[in-house]
């Protein structure tokens, strides 16, 4: 493995699998926040102490069962260029905070990129596991296995009454952030999301954009996650999220059925107009591209389009981001240059899909 492998390929291996309810749920993520008991937290520690944390976590990971055959690759933030870090953020392999923070951070990545262990982000350790579709329970099992193996080697900051201690009070307790990425075009078209989001918030969950806190929804993609980590077990948090997401899945499917029944021609026209924009544009901004990709994805799910695979759409969703466009260009690009290159890339990918 190498840095080039992680930044040159837009689609992670796990993204090519179609998990349960993958027509609506693109991915499931489990993230565990942990700190080492014998070190100051990242908000106050020194550079020397930060590098000691990186070393200790790295030594612990070397002793993982089976890691000799499939070792995790370590990437040090101080060895990466800003553009390289941006690409890793666009692939959801590191957080914006780790990319924008000090140069004392690191990330350990599995070969298929379903495991990402960030070091010295807001906490000493952020264990992240990803899976296709709605697979929160399975992903939690994997994250807990990694968590237990690390804790055998390095003791965590833990309080018997409160639970795991973290830099941010909202993560104290389980330190668990469970989230799903969902595609909800029909609920947006029928303007039901305006009522759904406040209702979700009242249940102790939060709806964000695809890059988490502070990001906006693009292409009808939303990230739904738990807000509280204290007072509930990991299983309760995950089960509550699954229950709510399952209801949203049912609502999205009902909205899709209603659109097909009552606005069939208008819906089909919108989908194929969006496909036409993607296939023929010479200039396209990221927001328009994301919306058109959303429409085409819906067209595939509804059976209007059967000549394109969703894997290509997953690839284009990442490839058309600013970091990836510049990575492929091998140079910094102005916004208008990115818009031209984005359009060219989309046309080329769609032509390849059709075999010409």
TrEMBL record:
PANTHER family: ARGININE KINASE 1-RELATED, ARGININE OR CREATINE KINASE. The gene is mcsB. Keywords: Allosteric enzyme, ATP-binding, Kinase, Nucleotide-binding, Transferase. Catalyzes the specific phosphorylation of arginine residues in a large number of proteins. Is part of the bacterial stress response system. Protein arginine phosphorylation has a physiologically important role and is involved in the regulation of many critical cellular processes, such as protein homeostasis, motility, competence, and stringent and stress responses, by regulating gene expression and protein activity. One of its GO terms (cellular component) is extracellular space. This is Protein-arginine kinase. It comes from the Bacteria. One of its GO terms (molecular function) is ATP binding. Its EC number is 2.7.14.1. It comes from Bacillus smithii 7_3_47FAA. Belongs to the ATP:guanido phosphotransferase family. NCBIfam families: PRK01059.1-4, PRK01059.1-5. HAMAP family: Prot_Arg_kinase. PROSITE patterns: PHOSPHAGEN_KINASE (PS00112), PHOSPHAGEN_KINASE_C (PS51510). GO terms for biological process: phosphocreatine biosynthetic process. InterPro entries: Arg_Kinase (IPR023660), ATP-guanido_PTrfase (IPR000749), ATP-guanido_PTrfase_AS (IPR022415), ATP-guanido_PTrfase_cat (IPR022414), Gln_synth/guanido_kin_cat_dom (IPR014746).
């Amino acid at each position: 493995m190498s840095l080039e492998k992680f930044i040159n390929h837009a689609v992670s291996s796990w993204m090519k699998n179609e998990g349960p309810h993958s027509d609506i749920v693109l991915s499931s993520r489990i993230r565990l926040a942990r700190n080492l008991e014998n070190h100051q937290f990242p908000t106050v520690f020194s550079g020397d102490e930060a590098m000691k944390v990186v070393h200790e976590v790295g030594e612990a990971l070397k002793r993982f069962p089976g890691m000799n055959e499939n070792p995790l690759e370590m990437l040090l933030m101080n060895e990466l260029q800003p553009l390289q870090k941006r690409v890793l953020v666009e692939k959801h392999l590191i957080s914006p905070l780790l990319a924008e923070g000090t140069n004392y951070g690191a990330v350990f990545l599995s070969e298929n990129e379903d495991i990402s262990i960030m070091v010295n982000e807001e906490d000493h350790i952020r264990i992240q596991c990803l899976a296709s579709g709605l697979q929160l329970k399975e992903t939690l099992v994997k994250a807990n296995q990694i968590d237990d193996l690390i804790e055998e080697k390095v003791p965590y900051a833990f309080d018997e009454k409160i639970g795991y201690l973290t830099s941010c009070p909202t993560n104290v307790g389980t330190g668990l952030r469970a989230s799903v990425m969902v595609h909800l075009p029909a609920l947006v078209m029928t303007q039901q999301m305006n009522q759904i989001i406040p209702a979700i918030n009242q249940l102790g969950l939060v709806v964000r954009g695809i890059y988490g806190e502070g990001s906006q929804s693009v292409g009808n993609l939303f990230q739904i996650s738990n807000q509280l980590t204290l007072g509930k077990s990991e299983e309760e948090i995950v089960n509550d999220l699954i229950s709510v997401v399952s209801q949203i899945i049912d609502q999205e499917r009902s909205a899709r059925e209603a659109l097909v029944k009552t606005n069939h021609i208008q819906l089909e026209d919108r989908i194929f107009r969006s496909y036409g924009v993607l296939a023929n544009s010479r200039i396209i901004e990221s927001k328009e591209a994301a919306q058109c990709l959303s429409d085409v994805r819906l067209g595939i799910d509804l059976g209007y389009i059967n000549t394109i695979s969703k894997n290509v759409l997953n690839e284009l969703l990442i490839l058309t981001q600013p970091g990836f466009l510049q990575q492929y260009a091998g140079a910094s690009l102005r916004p208008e240059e990115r818009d031209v290159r984005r359009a060219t890339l989309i046309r080329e990918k769609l032509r390849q899909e059709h075999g010409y």
